[in-house]
Design a protein that fits this description.
Blueprint (H helix, E strand, L loop, with lengths): L23 H21 L8 H6 L1
């Protein structure tokens, strides 16, 4: 998504990852990635892939 997309300006929109296929490996990796993202948010207040960090500041 382009960084100037109007979707990124909407406060009532939440972007989540899409999982196109579910294999045992992808399931394990998804769980690991979510836990790493949660830990990163708790420790740093943002995610590596945060697009709209201003929205996190308002939360």
């Amino acid at each position: 998504m382009p960084t100037d997309s109007p979707w990124l300006e909407l406060e009532n929109v939440t972007f989540t990852p899409h999982i196109a296929g579910m294999t045992l490996d992808s399931s394990k990796n998804s769980i690991r990635m979510v836990t790493e993202a949660i830990r990163e948010f708790v420790e740093a207040g943002c995610f590596e892939n945060t697009v709209n960090s201003a929205a996190l500041e308002r939360a």
